[in-house]
Design brief:
The protein has 251 residues and is α+β, with helices and mostly antiparallel strands. It is 29% helix and 27% strand. The chain has 7 helices and 17 strands. The strands form 7 sheets. Strands 6-7-8-12-9 form a 5-stranded mixed β-sheet, covered by helices on one side. Helix 1 packs parallel to helix 2. It is elongated and about 70 Å long. The two termini are 35 Å apart. The relative contact order is 0.17.
Length: 251
């Protein structure tokens, strides 16, 4: 996308979230299923009020289902998920709208996250976006009103990329999360990092811990595990990296 902002005297480009990609792919797949025709682009209005024009990749269509992908664009934010293909497969079911996670979408294994233990790590706002886009398409095609549909989100490279994210520490296994509240990735977003720290603290609290050890970064983590100070290594499971956000973490 072309929206940009200045940060530390640099002009940086915004991107869009995995949630926007999943919603866009679900919209395009639903449109293909309803019309019987492949599409190459799809508009998506994000919760943040920014209209995206998303390229539709790898479209596949048959009588009962349709699938396609949207490529994640993290803009100029240092985002491990940028460039991944986010797929959605939409198929007929008996009734309602269901949203599921497939290959490469993580599963929640610890309490304290937005979704309960055992659910696919597709957060609340992306789920709302996916559902909304499916319903908007069905409204344009009366013959599909009331037809049950299931959208399955998958990310073929998600499991490999998840190892470079916070997910393993947060108890999300098997892939990455489908995230985003505004639908847009702000480059060098401090809020994204502090939100991750807050989430990690919440999970530790849910696990019954009443105290944590804060380390500034990788050097602090390495010192903690070195055994230099007796007893510290036992606290490694309760260690939270705070980067430069010491005050925010303490708050």
């Amino acid at each position: 996308m072309e929206q940009r902002k200045f940060y530390q005297q640099k002009l940086l480009r915004y991107g869009y979230t995995t949630g926007s990609c999943a919603a866009g792919a679900a919209k395009a797949a639903t449109l293909m299923l309803c019309t019987g025709r492949k599409v190459d682009r799809v508009p998506l209005m994000t919760p943040g009020g920014v209209l995206l024009e998303l390229e539709v990749l790898d479209p596949v269509l048959d009588e009962k289902s349709a699938s396609c992908a949207v490529r994640k664009d993290g803009g100029d934010d240092p985002d491990a998920t940028s460039g991944l293909l986010i797929y959605a497969r939409v198929q007929r079911i008996s009734r309602g709208i269901q949203i599921e996670g497939g290959v490469g979408v993580g599963r929640v294994t610890k309490p304290g996250l937005e979704m309960p233990v055992g659910e696919a790590a597709i957060n609340r706002v992306p789920r709302q976006m996916i559902r909304q886009q499916i319903e908007l398409v069905r409204q344009d095609y009366p013959a599909w009103e009331g037809v049950g549909l299931r959208a399955t989100v998958s990310i073929p490279q998600g499991e490999a990329v998840a190892k470079r994210t916070f997910n393993p520490r947060l108890g999300i296994e098997g892939g990455i999360s489908v995230l985003g509240t505004s639908g847009i990735v702000e480059p060098m977003s401090e809020k994204a990092l502090t939100d991750s720290i807050k989430l990690e603290l919440s999970i530790l609290r849910k696990a019954g811990h009443t105290g944590v050890l804060i380390t500034p970064g990788n050097y602090g983590q390495a010192f903690l595990n070195s055994g230099t100070l007796e007893g510290l290594s036992a606290l490694s499971e309760r260690a939270v990296k705070c980067s430069n956000y010491v005050g925010d973490t303490l708050d």
